[in-house]
Amino acid sequence: MARPQKQSRRRDEPLTAERIIAAALRIADGEGDLDGLTVRRLAADLGIGTMTLYGYFRGKDEILDAMADHVLGRMRLPEEPDAGPAETLRAVGHAFLEMMRDHPSVARLFGTRITDSPAALKGAMEAVLQRFVDAGIPGPLAVRCYGFLITYAIGFASYQRPRPWGRMTDIEGSEHHRQRTHYYAGLPRDEFPVMVEYADKVAALSSNEEFSAGLEAYIDSTLRLLPRGGS
To answer: What is the pTM of this model?
Structure first.
C-alpha cells in the first residue's frame, strides 16, 4: 500500500520538463552510467505513465540532450576579476572536475554523444573560451586549453569514481587509503618490486592532489607558449 501512496504524492506535484530532467539525472548519476536510465524506469520514479512522459520528450535521446543542457548550460565559473592565465586555467580545471564528480553521467554523455545544443555550448564552451581569451590566452591556444582541460577532467573523474579513497578527505577516506596501501604493499615483491616499494604513492594516484599536480604541470607548460609578458 505504501507504493501507491508514494506515487499519489508525486502525481500531486506539478509535472514539468525540469522535474523530469532532475529525476533523470538523479537516476543516471546514482548509477554512474546511462544504461540504467530508461523511459519506463524514469516514468516509474516520477509516478506517471510512460505516455505522459512522451508528452514532454519523444524518447530517451531527447532526455539525454536535455540532461546535457541542464548540466553544461548551468556551469558556473568562480568569479575572479582580472585573473591571469594561470589562475583562470586552474579555476576552469577544478570547475570541470567538480562538474564531472557532481554529475558522473555527464562524463558518459561526453563519451557517447555530441552535444550541439546552444544552451550547452554557451555555458560549458563559449563562456569558458571567452574567459581564457579575457585572461590573455590567444584564441587558438585557448581552444587547445579547453580541449585538454575537459578531457583531463573527464578521464580523471572516471578513474576516481570507483576509487573513493582518492576524493575523500575525512577519516573514512584515510582508512580506505590505508587499506589500499596495505594491499599494494602486500603484493609479491619479486613480481611487483616497484609497486611494493611505492605502495603509498600508487594508492594516491586517484587523489585530488594528483589531479592538481597534473593541472599545475599543464599550466606551467602553457605559460611558456604565451606571448612575452603573459603570466
So the answer is: 0.83
